What we know:
This protein is an alpha+beta fold and 113 residues long. 42% of the residues lie in helices and 26% in strands.
Amino acid sequence: MKQVIVMRADLKMSRGKIAAQACHASLGAYKRADKNSIMKWELEGGKKVVVKVNTLRELFEIHELVKSAELPNYLVTDAGHTEIPKSTVTCLGIGPDEDEKVDKITQDLKLLK
């Protein structure tokens, strides 16, 4: 079981902003997961991985695949109070769900460093 956060790397956000956006994505997707998946994920340690895409278009392509696979997900749109304009889509939370289901969509994405 895992959760993956797909972050846009083209926005040039500070580390703190990235962390905040990842938290929004994580909690948003978590709230949309079924109770059995949540319980299993938590019992296995709550694994999270943060990966990146280079464009909004790539993020939307991943989002469409996630929706088609019926994985719990949450697309984060920023409120615009700090570093980036209001309504900027920053990242996507996927899962928690089974590793195989999530990896089928995200396995080729590079880790955010």
